[in-house]
Amino acid sequence: MDDMLKRIDVHHHIVPKEYVDRLAKKGVTKGLGVPLPHWNVQKALEIMDANEIATAIVSISAPGVYFDQDLQFAKELSRQTNEICARLIADYPQRFGAFATLPVPDIDAALEELQYAFNVLKLDGVILLTNYDGYYLGDPRFERLFAELNRRKAVVFIHPTTPPGMQASHLGLPEAMMDVCFDTTRTTFSLIVNGITKNYPDVRFILSHAGGTVPYIAARVGITASMLADLKGASAVIADGIGMVASAVPKLEEKMPGTLSYYLRFKKNVLPEGPDFFLKKFYYDTALSASPHAFASLQTLVESSHIIFGTDYVFATPAAVPATIQGIREYAGFTDRDRTVIERENSMDLFPRLKVLV
Question: Which residues does the UniProt record annotate as the domain Amidohydrolase-related (predicted)?
Fold first, then answer.
Protein backbone atom coordinates (compact mmCIF):
# COMPACT_ATOMS: atom_id res chain seq x y z
CA MET A 1 0.00 0.00 0.00
CA ASP A 2 1.13 3.54 -0.72
CA ASP A 3 3.02 4.86 2.32
CA MET A 4 1.13 8.15 1.97
CA LEU A 5 -2.13 6.41 2.85
CA LYS A 6 -2.15 6.48 6.61
CA ARG A 7 -5.55 7.29 8.11
CA ILE A 8 -8.15 4.75 9.19
CA ASP A 9 -11.77 5.91 8.99
CA VAL A 10 -14.12 4.13 11.39
CA HIS A 11 -17.20 6.18 10.46
CA HIS A 12 -17.62 5.53 6.75
CA HIS A 13 -20.93 4.47 5.28
CA ILE A 14 -21.88 2.54 2.20
CA VAL A 15 -25.27 2.80 0.52
CA PRO A 16 -25.41 -0.12 -1.92
CA LYS A 17 -27.99 -0.05 -4.70
CA GLU A 18 -29.47 -3.29 -3.38
CA TYR A 19 -30.08 -1.61 -0.04
CA VAL A 20 -31.65 1.48 -1.63
CA ASP A 21 -33.93 -0.71 -3.74
CA ARG A 22 -35.11 -2.74 -0.76
CA LEU A 23 -35.83 0.41 1.26
CA ALA A 24 -37.75 1.91 -1.63
CA LYS A 25 -40.19 -0.99 -1.41
CA LYS A 26 -40.88 0.15 2.14
CA GLY A 27 -41.33 3.72 0.96
CA VAL A 28 -38.08 4.80 2.63
CA THR A 29 -35.91 7.22 0.66
CA LYS A 30 -34.22 9.20 3.44
CA GLY A 31 -31.95 8.66 6.40
CA LEU A 32 -32.12 11.05 9.34
CA GLY A 33 -34.19 13.47 7.30
CA VAL A 34 -31.86 13.69 4.30
CA PRO A 35 -32.07 11.80 0.99
CA LEU A 36 -30.06 8.60 0.77
CA PRO A 37 -26.85 9.55 -1.06
CA HIS A 38 -25.50 7.90 -4.17
CA TRP A 39 -22.57 5.61 -3.41
CA ASN A 40 -20.17 3.51 -5.41
CA VAL A 41 -16.90 1.92 -4.47
CA GLN A 42 -14.74 3.71 -7.04
CA LYS A 43 -15.84 7.13 -5.85
CA ALA A 44 -15.26 6.07 -2.26
CA LEU A 45 -11.72 4.96 -3.10
CA GLU A 46 -11.06 8.26 -4.87
CA ILE A 47 -12.14 10.18 -1.78
CA MET A 48 -10.02 7.95 0.43
CA ASP A 49 -6.94 8.34 -1.76
CA ALA A 50 -7.34 12.10 -1.98
CA ASN A 51 -7.43 12.32 1.82
CA GLU A 52 -4.72 9.78 2.64
CA ILE A 53 -7.17 7.27 4.10
CA ALA A 54 -5.69 3.80 3.98
CA THR A 55 -8.68 1.84 5.24
CA ALA A 56 -12.34 2.51 5.97
CA ILE A 57 -14.43 0.39 8.33
CA VAL A 58 -17.76 0.62 6.54
CA SER A 59 -21.27 0.38 7.89
CA ILE A 60 -24.92 0.74 6.98
CA SER A 61 -26.14 3.95 8.60
CA ALA A 62 -29.56 5.00 9.81
CA PRO A 63 -32.29 4.28 8.94
CA GLY A 64 -30.88 0.76 9.20
CA VAL A 65 -32.90 -2.32 8.28
CA TYR A 66 -35.88 -2.40 10.65
CA PHE A 67 -39.15 -0.80 9.49
CA ASP A 68 -42.85 -1.23 10.25
CA GLN A 69 -42.06 -3.89 12.87
CA ASP A 70 -41.14 -6.21 9.99
CA LEU A 71 -38.64 -8.54 11.65
CA GLN A 72 -38.30 -10.82 8.63
CA PHE A 73 -37.38 -7.88 6.40
CA ALA A 74 -34.74 -6.81 8.93
CA LYS A 75 -33.32 -10.31 9.07
CA GLU A 76 -33.09 -10.64 5.29
CA LEU A 77 -31.65 -7.19 4.72
CA SER A 78 -29.07 -7.63 7.49
CA ARG A 79 -27.81 -10.79 5.82
CA GLN A 80 -27.80 -9.16 2.38
CA THR A 81 -25.88 -6.07 3.48
CA ASN A 82 -23.38 -8.08 5.52
CA GLU A 83 -22.60 -10.24 2.53
CA ILE A 84 -22.15 -7.11 0.41
CA CYS A 85 -19.66 -5.87 3.00
CA ALA A 86 -17.83 -9.19 2.96
CA ARG A 87 -17.51 -9.08 -0.83
CA LEU A 88 -16.20 -5.53 -0.62
CA ILE A 89 -13.50 -6.64 1.80
CA ALA A 90 -12.64 -9.63 -0.39
CA ASP A 91 -12.23 -7.35 -3.39
CA TYR A 92 -10.22 -4.70 -1.50
CA PRO A 93 -8.77 -6.40 1.59
CA GLN A 94 -6.40 -3.57 2.44
CA ARG A 95 -8.90 -0.79 1.91
CA PHE A 96 -12.02 -1.90 3.74
CA GLY A 97 -13.29 -3.50 6.92
CA ALA A 98 -16.90 -3.62 8.04
CA PHE A 99 -19.28 -3.41 10.97
CA ALA A 100 -22.01 -6.03 10.72
CA THR A 101 -25.66 -5.00 10.69
CA LEU A 102 -27.90 -7.01 13.03
CA PRO A 103 -31.70 -7.47 12.80
CA VAL A 104 -32.39 -5.86 16.16
CA PRO A 105 -34.86 -5.79 17.94
CA ASP A 106 -35.20 -9.53 17.21
CA ILE A 107 -32.50 -10.66 19.64
CA ASP A 108 -32.57 -14.33 18.63
CA ALA A 109 -32.11 -13.35 14.98
CA ALA A 110 -29.45 -10.80 15.96
CA LEU A 111 -27.45 -13.47 17.80
CA GLU A 112 -27.73 -15.78 14.80
CA GLU A 113 -26.56 -13.05 12.42
CA LEU A 114 -23.75 -12.07 14.77
CA GLN A 115 -22.42 -15.61 14.67
CA TYR A 116 -22.58 -15.68 10.87
CA ALA A 117 -21.01 -12.24 10.50
CA PHE A 118 -18.10 -13.03 12.80
CA ASN A 119 -17.52 -16.75 12.26
CA VAL A 120 -18.22 -16.99 8.53
CA LEU A 121 -17.87 -13.50 7.04
CA LYS A 122 -15.11 -12.44 9.46
CA LEU A 123 -16.42 -8.89 9.79
CA ASP A 124 -14.70 -6.55 12.21
CA GLY A 125 -17.43 -5.50 14.62
CA VAL A 126 -21.09 -4.54 14.71
CA ILE A 127 -23.06 -1.35 14.30
CA LEU A 128 -26.00 -0.68 16.60
CA LEU A 129 -28.41 2.20 16.29
CA THR A 130 -29.11 4.29 19.36
CA ASN A 131 -32.70 3.13 19.78
CA TYR A 132 -35.05 0.53 18.38
CA ASP A 133 -38.78 1.22 18.66
CA GLY A 134 -37.88 3.92 21.17
CA TYR A 135 -35.98 1.56 23.47
CA TYR A 136 -32.41 2.64 24.16
CA LEU A 137 -29.51 0.22 24.29
CA GLY A 138 -29.37 -0.06 28.07
CA ASP A 139 -32.85 -1.57 28.14
CA PRO A 140 -32.89 -5.13 29.56
CA ARG A 141 -34.35 -6.47 26.31
CA PHE A 142 -30.90 -6.08 24.72
CA GLU A 143 -28.90 -7.69 27.52
CA ARG A 144 -28.49 -11.13 25.91
CA LEU A 145 -26.95 -9.46 22.87
CA PHE A 146 -24.45 -7.55 24.99
CA ALA A 147 -23.55 -10.70 26.89
CA GLU A 148 -22.52 -12.34 23.61
CA LEU A 149 -20.74 -9.23 22.37
CA ASN A 150 -18.85 -9.16 25.65
CA ARG A 151 -17.90 -12.82 25.30
CA ARG A 152 -16.48 -12.06 21.88
CA LYS A 153 -14.77 -8.85 23.07
CA ALA A 154 -16.49 -7.16 20.14
CA VAL A 155 -16.13 -3.61 18.86
CA VAL A 156 -19.56 -1.95 18.76
CA PHE A 157 -20.03 1.20 16.71
CA ILE A 158 -23.03 3.14 18.02
CA HIS A 159 -24.71 5.29 15.42
CA PRO A 160 -27.64 7.63 16.07
CA THR A 161 -31.02 7.19 14.51
CA THR A 162 -34.28 9.13 14.61
CA PRO A 163 -35.30 9.84 18.22
CA PRO A 164 -38.75 8.72 19.34
CA GLY A 165 -41.30 11.50 19.03
CA MET A 166 -39.21 13.43 16.55
CA GLN A 167 -42.21 14.48 14.46
CA ALA A 168 -43.98 15.89 17.50
CA SER A 169 -41.33 18.56 17.90
CA HIS A 170 -42.45 20.53 14.82
CA LEU A 171 -38.92 21.87 14.48
CA GLY A 172 -38.94 21.49 10.74
CA LEU A 173 -35.25 20.54 10.77
CA PRO A 174 -33.72 17.21 9.73
CA GLU A 175 -32.68 15.08 12.66
CA ALA A 176 -29.20 14.86 11.15
CA MET A 177 -28.64 18.49 12.15
CA MET A 178 -28.95 18.24 15.95
CA ASP A 179 -31.09 15.41 17.21
CA VAL A 180 -28.63 12.68 16.33
CA CYS A 181 -26.28 14.13 18.94
CA PHE A 182 -28.98 14.04 21.59
CA ASP A 183 -29.91 10.44 20.78
CA THR A 184 -26.29 9.31 21.10
CA THR A 185 -26.23 10.99 24.50
CA ARG A 186 -29.41 9.25 25.62
CA THR A 187 -28.23 5.78 24.68
CA THR A 188 -24.79 6.32 26.21
CA PHE A 189 -26.20 7.12 29.63
CA SER A 190 -28.76 4.35 29.19
CA LEU A 191 -25.87 1.89 28.82
CA ILE A 192 -24.15 3.26 31.91
CA VAL A 193 -27.09 3.71 34.30
CA ASN A 194 -28.55 0.29 33.43
CA GLY A 195 -25.27 -1.51 34.04
CA ILE A 196 -24.27 -2.61 30.55
CA THR A 197 -20.89 -0.92 30.76
CA LYS A 198 -20.22 -2.30 34.25
CA ASN A 199 -21.45 -5.84 33.62
CA TYR A 200 -19.98 -6.27 30.13
CA PRO A 201 -16.61 -4.50 30.32
CA ASP A 202 -15.04 -6.28 27.35
CA VAL A 203 -17.32 -4.64 24.78
CA ARG A 204 -15.42 -1.80 23.10
CA PHE A 205 -17.85 1.00 22.21
CA ILE A 206 -17.28 3.72 19.62
CA LEU A 207 -19.61 6.72 19.88
CA SER A 208 -20.40 8.76 16.78
CA HIS A 209 -19.86 12.51 16.46
CA ALA A 210 -17.56 12.95 19.48
CA GLY A 211 -20.23 11.43 21.69
CA GLY A 212 -22.95 13.90 20.77
CA THR A 213 -23.44 16.03 23.88
CA VAL A 214 -21.95 13.44 26.24
CA PRO A 215 -18.76 15.35 27.17
CA TYR A 216 -20.66 18.57 27.81
CA ILE A 217 -23.24 17.10 30.18
CA ALA A 218 -21.18 14.34 31.81
CA ALA A 219 -20.82 16.22 35.09
CA ARG A 220 -24.51 17.11 35.12
CA VAL A 221 -25.51 13.44 35.25
CA GLY A 222 -23.49 12.79 38.37
CA ILE A 223 -24.62 16.02 40.01
CA THR A 224 -28.27 15.22 39.33
CA ALA A 225 -27.96 11.83 40.98
CA SER A 226 -26.38 13.44 44.04
CA MET A 227 -29.19 15.99 44.17
CA LEU A 228 -31.77 13.21 44.23
CA ALA A 229 -29.97 11.59 47.14
CA ASP A 230 -30.02 14.86 49.04
CA LEU A 231 -33.76 15.49 48.72
CA LYS A 232 -35.32 15.87 52.16
CA GLY A 233 -36.53 12.58 53.56
CA ALA A 234 -35.03 10.46 50.79
CA SER A 235 -31.34 10.16 51.66
CA ALA A 236 -31.57 7.43 54.25
CA VAL A 237 -34.14 5.49 52.28
CA ILE A 238 -32.05 5.53 49.12
CA ALA A 239 -28.86 4.72 50.99
CA ASP A 240 -30.48 1.59 52.42
CA GLY A 241 -32.08 0.66 49.12
CA ILE A 242 -35.42 0.09 50.83
CA GLY A 243 -37.53 2.66 49.06
CA MET A 244 -41.15 1.75 49.00
CA VAL A 245 -41.81 1.45 52.75
CA ALA A 246 -40.84 5.00 53.68
CA SER A 247 -43.43 7.73 53.80
CA ALA A 248 -41.06 10.14 52.07
CA VAL A 249 -40.80 8.02 48.95
CA PRO A 250 -44.40 8.28 47.71
CA LYS A 251 -44.15 12.04 48.09
CA LEU A 252 -40.88 12.09 46.17
CA GLU A 253 -42.29 9.83 43.47
CA GLU A 254 -45.41 11.97 43.20
CA LYS A 255 -43.34 15.07 42.53
CA MET A 256 -40.65 13.41 40.40
CA PRO A 257 -41.90 10.06 39.02
CA GLY A 258 -39.17 7.49 38.57
CA THR A 259 -36.53 9.31 40.62
CA LEU A 260 -36.08 6.59 43.22
CA SER A 261 -35.85 3.87 40.60
CA TYR A 262 -33.33 5.94 38.69
CA TYR A 263 -31.19 6.62 41.74
CA LEU A 264 -31.15 3.00 42.87
CA ARG A 265 -30.03 1.92 39.41
CA PHE A 266 -27.42 4.67 39.43
CA LYS A 267 -26.17 3.55 42.84
CA LYS A 268 -25.95 -0.09 41.78
CA ASN A 269 -24.47 0.36 38.32
CA VAL A 270 -22.49 3.60 38.41
CA LEU A 271 -21.28 4.02 41.99
CA PRO A 272 -18.78 4.10 43.53
CA GLU A 273 -16.82 4.75 40.32
CA GLY A 274 -19.03 7.55 38.98
CA PRO A 275 -20.09 8.30 35.38
CA ASP A 276 -16.71 9.55 34.20
CA PHE A 277 -15.07 6.21 34.97
CA PHE A 278 -17.30 4.51 32.42
CA LEU A 279 -17.37 7.38 29.93
CA LYS A 280 -13.59 7.24 29.69
CA LYS A 281 -13.85 3.67 28.39
CA PHE A 282 -15.77 4.71 25.27
CA TYR A 283 -14.09 5.77 22.04
CA TYR A 284 -15.31 9.00 20.46
CA ASP A 285 -15.05 9.55 16.72
CA THR A 286 -14.36 12.84 14.97
CA ALA A 287 -17.12 12.67 12.34
CA LEU A 288 -18.72 16.08 11.76
CA SER A 289 -17.21 17.19 15.08
CA ALA A 290 -13.72 18.40 14.20
CA SER A 291 -14.00 21.84 15.76
CA PRO A 292 -12.25 23.54 18.68
CA HIS A 293 -15.54 23.67 20.58
CA ALA A 294 -16.13 19.92 20.39
CA PHE A 295 -12.51 18.91 20.89
CA ALA A 296 -12.02 21.15 23.91
CA SER A 297 -15.04 19.60 25.62
CA LEU A 298 -14.00 16.09 24.64
CA GLN A 299 -10.48 16.56 25.98
CA THR A 300 -11.84 17.33 29.44
CA LEU A 301 -13.23 13.78 29.45
CA VAL A 302 -10.78 11.51 27.59
CA GLU A 303 -7.19 11.34 26.42
CA SER A 304 -6.26 11.16 22.74
CA SER A 305 -6.06 7.37 23.14
CA HIS A 306 -9.87 7.34 23.08
CA ILE A 307 -10.48 9.78 20.22
CA ILE A 308 -10.70 8.06 16.86
CA PHE A 309 -10.79 9.26 13.26
CA GLY A 310 -14.11 9.18 11.42
CA THR A 311 -15.61 11.22 8.58
CA ASP A 312 -19.28 10.19 8.11
CA TYR A 313 -18.74 9.81 4.37
CA VAL A 314 -20.91 9.16 2.27
CA PHE A 315 -23.68 10.95 4.18
CA ALA A 316 -21.19 13.73 4.78
CA THR A 317 -20.24 15.30 1.46
CA PRO A 318 -16.79 14.82 -0.09
CA ALA A 319 -15.86 18.32 1.09
CA ALA A 320 -16.53 17.32 4.70
CA VAL A 321 -13.72 14.76 4.64
CA PRO A 322 -10.81 17.19 4.19
CA ALA A 323 -12.60 19.60 6.53
CA THR A 324 -12.48 16.94 9.25
CA ILE A 325 -8.77 16.41 8.66
CA GLN A 326 -8.15 20.14 8.67
CA GLY A 327 -10.02 20.49 11.95
CA ILE A 328 -7.82 17.84 13.57
CA ARG A 329 -4.65 19.31 12.10
CA GLU A 330 -5.41 22.89 13.14
CA TYR A 331 -6.71 22.26 16.64
CA ALA A 332 -4.06 23.67 18.95
CA GLY A 333 -4.93 21.28 21.76
CA PHE A 334 -3.52 18.28 19.88
CA THR A 335 0.16 17.49 19.59
CA ASP A 336 1.57 15.81 16.49
CA ARG A 337 1.66 12.61 18.50
CA ASP A 338 -2.02 13.02 19.40
CA ARG A 339 -2.89 13.39 15.72
CA THR A 340 -1.09 10.18 14.78
CA VAL A 341 -2.81 8.31 17.58
CA ILE A 342 -6.23 9.67 16.61
CA GLU A 343 -5.93 9.23 12.85
CA ARG A 344 -4.37 5.78 12.84
CA GLU A 345 -3.07 4.04 15.94
CA ASN A 346 -6.25 3.84 17.99
CA SER A 347 -7.99 2.04 15.13
CA MET A 348 -5.11 -0.38 14.79
CA ASP A 349 -5.43 -1.21 18.48
CA LEU A 350 -9.16 -1.89 18.08
CA PHE A 351 -8.71 -3.85 14.85
CA PRO A 352 -5.38 -5.71 15.12
CA ARG A 353 -5.70 -7.27 11.66
CA LEU A 354 -5.10 -3.81 10.20
CA LYS A 355 -1.57 -3.76 11.62
CA VAL A 356 -0.40 -6.16 8.92
CA LEU A 357 -2.36 -4.41 6.17
CA VAL A 358 -1.73 -0.68 6.52
Answer: 8-352
- In one-letter notation, the amino acid at residue 138 is G
106-120 pLDDT, tens digit each: 999 999 999 999 999
Q: What is the span of the domain harbouring residue 118?
A: 7-214+275-356
With vertex at residue 235, the alpha carbon angle to CA 229 and CA 240, rounded to the nearest 5 degrees, is 110
DSSP annotation of 312: -
Instruction: Output the domain CATH number for residue 284.
Output: 3.20.20.140
- 228 located within any domain: no
Q: Is residue 101 part of a domain?
A: yes
Domains in the chain: how many in total? Answer: 1
pTM of the model: 0.91
Task: Please provide the DSSP assignment of 160-222 as one string.
Answer: --PPTTGGGG---S-TTTTHHHHHHHHHHHHHHHTTHHHH-TT-EEEESGGGTTHHHHHHHHH
230 domain-assigned? no
Is residue 235 assigned to a domain? no
